[in-house]
Design brief:
The protein has 115 residues and is mainly alpha-helical. The protein is built from five helices and no strands.
Length: 115
């Protein structure tokens, strides 16, 4: 027969997991990342948006050891693009960098509890 303390501990764990799970954001797939990027040009001309999306899509499809490596890749791609794109395209780079960081967060942080 289980001890009352172990039942209480089990109940707390279940409630904690349920509370987190109800706010969990789903992992963004590489296909969703690309579709989202291409559907929202953020004021950029289509050629700029296409280039930016292609560069960041490599982050979504590459292997990363952990969240830090994934996010570093997002930031590196953004810096490279910002140095080489015209002014109106910079907003698209920043928006896609932010989406890329969120992609990494959701991919590696299993419990995305809204806090």
């Amino acid at each position: 027969m289980p001890r009352p303390f172990s039942l209480l501990l089990l109940a707390c764990c279940c409630l904690g997991a349920w509370g987190c799970a109800k706010h969990t954001l789903p992992i963004i797939t590489p296909q969703e990342f690309e579709a989202s990027c291409r559907s929202d040009p953020a004021g950029a001309v289509s050629a700029c948006a296409s280039r930016v999306c292609g560069v960041f899509q490599a982050v979504a499809t590459d292997y990363h050891e952990d969240m830090a490596a994934c996010q570093a890749s997002c930031k590196q791609r953004a810096m490279e693009l910002e140095a080489d794109v015209p002014g109106p395209c910079a907003a698209k780079v920043q928006q896609t960098r932010d989406t890329c960081l969120e992609f990494c967060n959701r991919k590696f942080y299993r419990c995305n509890c809204a806090k």
